[in-house]
Structure formats: C-alpha cells, structure tokens
C-alpha cells in the first residue's frame, strides 16, 4: 500500500481488501509495519476505521518498541485521517519525552 499511496494511484479496492485482512493480523505487525500501514491509508485518503482502531490498540501495547520515526508517522497518519486517538497521542508523547 505504501507504493500505491506514494504514487497516488487510485486503488480503493486493494486498500479495502488489505484493511480487512490486516485488522486480524496487527498483532503480527512490527512497529514500522503499523506506522507504514496507517501512513499509507492516510496518504491515500482511504477511510479504514476498523484498521486504525486495531493498529491504535496494538500500538498502545507496544509503544516502547516504536522508534521516533514510527511515532511521528503514526501520529501524522491518525491526525491526517482525522481519527480521534487522544490516548494513543498521549502515550506516544510520553514515550517520546522519555527517550
């Protein structure tokens, strides 16, 4: 999805299929996978509430594993997609300050 989002290629069906599968696999994602996935959906302007919720929850559980770039990309994606995630933002801010 990163390549499609970067190229600004219209691929809503592809994004929808990926979102449907990824929701059930986010626990297998590495922090970079989580950040890149929500980044791509936000960049492509594809709504995926369930995916953002799943990744937000998984990120909260593993925020200590996120590097600064993962944190920045995740916050950017949630903000750009206009997905409310105050608790996630607070956790990321706390983790960033403690680094």
Distance between the termini: 30 Å
Give average pLDDT, whole number: 91
- Proportion in helices: 55-70%
SSE arrangement, N to C: HHHHHH
Q: Report low-confidence residues grouped into runs of 5 or more.
A: none
Number of helices: 6
Question: In percent terms, what proportion of residues is strand?
Answer: under 5%
- Form type: globular
* Largest sheet data: none
Q: What is the number of E strands? A: 0
Secondary structural class: mainly alpha
Question: What Rg do the Cα atoms give?
Answer: 13 Å
Name some characteristics of this structure:
99 residues; mainly alpha
Describe this structure in words.
The chain has 99 residues and is mainly alpha-helical. The chain has helices spanning 2-7, 12-22, 31-43, 49-61, 68-80, 86-97. It is globular and about 40 Å long. The chain starts with a helix and ends with a helix.
Question: TL;DR of this structure?
Answer:
This protein has 99 residues and is an all-alpha fold. It is 69% helix and 0% strand. The mean pLDDT is 91.
SSE inventory with pairings:
Blueprint: H1 2-7, H2 12-22, H3 31-43, H4 49-61, H5 68-80, H6 86-97
Helix pairs in contact: 3-4, 3-5, 4-6
